[in-house]
UniProtKB/TrEMBL annotation:
This is Kynureninase. It comes from Kribbella sandramycini. GO terms for cellular component: cytoplasm. It catalyses: L-kynurenine + H2O = anthranilate + L-alanine + H(+); 3-hydroxy-L-kynurenine + H2O = 3-hydroxyanthranilate + L-alanine + H(+). GO terms for molecular function: kynureninase activity; pyridoxal phosphate binding. The modification N6-(pyridoxal phosphate)lysine is found at residue 237. It comes from the Bacteria. Keywords: Hydrolase, Pyridine nucleotide biosynthesis, Pyridoxal phosphate. HAMAP family: Kynureninase (MF_01970). It holds the Pfam family KYNU_C. It is an enzyme of class 3 (hydrolase). GO terms for biological process: anthranilate metabolic process; L-kynurenine catabolic process; L-tryptophan catabolic process to kynurenine; NAD+ biosynthetic process; quinolinate biosynthetic process. Pathway: Amino-acid degradation; L-kynurenine degradation; L-alanine and anthranilate from L-kynurenine: step 1/1; Cofactor biosynthesis; NAD(+) biosynthesis; quinolinate from L-kynurenine: step 2/3.
Length: 413
């Protein structure tokens, strides 16, 4: 049996939910649809998104301002439709979870509350390969408080690409005020040991927050049980909610309802008395107290559709298929001259495999060739890292075969 027919057989036995998604077409080549591996950058559109977004937009046409309280999904409590599914996805209580703003904005709002430096404890620990937005966010927070040298960047050991948990823990001195790491690193695909690092950080007296951009919808999370202080994540990657779509935020129960400083607006006050229009806010004892503005309904709509899909299928089921797909891709790549820099241990990674490519092509040039000659969509991080994420909702074993076969041909040149 050829490798290709083997992949097709695996797809027949383990099909996923591809039929629920719009898969972009290819313009040339043997196959009608692209083999899409960039769901860790921008997830594909669920078919239901267009239908349900139009329903929400049409409520506006039909009802005008009355749409706040009437129609299929009234706008006033609309954000609450997202809370339950988002909370279940990250293993949090509904009161600990809110969908609002975008990721970096949420990180800033949360750091306003959770980065409270003092002259003796002011350092912020992040990974050296943090997504640049996180680096800029923590540096600007530190400068805002007058601690320009606060940020400590965690580097892997010489010759290694990923961080070791013990090396992270070793950096937890009594000067560390905040640990803010990516749950899954955007570059290497490494899944950090969130419970162990959280517990160690807190034992050292620090607050521990997580950027879950590459973890939410990718791996199961138990933020509440792990005692994570706060977290934020975007919804345009594995959560398939569309470009620049709204983000999630989580605050552990023990921090709710207290007198921690927060930035407020009219959506930080409790819903029951919001329209009494008083000058004093009454924040609820929930993550909704971190909301500032009234929610953008037409941006929330795709998030709601997508979260409902995750709720129906279940992140546990998706993770099982993800482990099978990623292992299959990894096995096919053993025949290709690239170095996989993502951990080989499946418990230390999500869907993504990051490949260091040798040879004459840059990652950008290679990804262009894969796209235009083979219809394989991969994500390039210059100069030499190609990221491939088989997404368990819609990627196939045949996609994995196409990616490995295309890479083998181009790399052989
Ligand atoms: C790990 C990580 N953090 C932060 C961001 C920035 O997100 P946003 O532009 O939505 O604030 C991204 C975007 O890809 C990311 O991958």
């Amino acid at each position: 049996m050829s490798r290709e027919s083997e992949a097709l057989q695996l797809d027949a036995a383990d099909p996923g939910h591809r039929e629920l998604f719009d898969i972009p077409p290819v313009f040339e080549g043997r196959y009608p649809e692209v083999a899409y591996f960039a769901g860790n950058s921008l997830g594909l559109r669920p078919k239901a998104t267009r239908v349900e977004l139009l329903e929400d937009v049409d409520s506006w046409a039909a009802l005008g301002v009355e749409g706040h309280l009437e129609g299929q999904r009234p706008w006033l409590p609309y954000h609450e439709l997202l809370t339950g599914p988002a909370a279940r996805l990250v293993g949090a209580l509904p009161t600990e979870t809110v969908v609002m703003n975008s990721l970096t904005v949420n990180l800033h709002l949360l750091m306003v509350s959770f980065y409270r430096p003092t002259p003796s404890r002011y350092r912020i620990l992040i990974e050296d390969s943090a997504f640049p937005s996180d680096s800029y966010a923590v540096q600007s927070q530190a400068r805002f408080h007058g601690y320009a040298d606060a940020v400590v960047r965690l580097k892997p050991r010489p010759g290694e690409d990923c961080l070791r948990t013990a090396d992270v823990v070793a950096q937890l001195t009594d000067e560390v005020a905040l640990v803010l790491l990516g749950g899954v690193n955007y570059l290497t695909g490494e899944l950090m040991d969130i419970p162990v690092i959280t517990a160690a950080g807190q034992a050292a007296g620090a607050i521990v927050g997580w950027d879950l951009a590459h973890a939410a919808g990718n791996v199961p999370l138990s933020l509440h049980d792990w005692g994570v202080d706060f977290a934020a994540w975007c919804s345009y990657k594995y959560l398939n909610s569309g470009p620049g779509s709204l983000a999630g935020a989580y605050v552990h129960e023990r921090h709710l309802g207290g007198d921690r400083p927060r930035f407020e607006g009219w959506w930080s006050t409790e819903a029951a008395t919001r329209f009494e229009m008083t000058p004093e806010s009454r924040p609820p004892a929930s993550a909704e107290a971190w909301q500032v503005s009234n929610p953008p309904i037409f941006s929330m709509s795709p998030v709601r559709t997508s979260l409902e899909l995750f709720d129906r299928v279940g992140i546990g089921v998706l993770r099982e298929r993800s482990l099978r797909l990623t292992a299959y891709l990894e096995q096919l790549l053993t025949d290709v001259p690239v170095q996989v820099i993502t951990p080989t241990d499946p418990t230390r990674r999500g869907a993504q495999l990051s490949l260091r490519i040798g040879g004459a092509l840059t990652a950008g040039e290679l990804s262009k060739r894969l796209r235009f000659e083979y219809g394989v969509i991969a994500d390039a991080r210059e100069p030499d890292v190609l990221r491939l994420a088989p997404v368990p909702l819609y990627s196939t074993y045949h996609d994995c075969w196409r990616a490995a076969a295309a890479l083998a041909e181009v790399m052989a040149e």
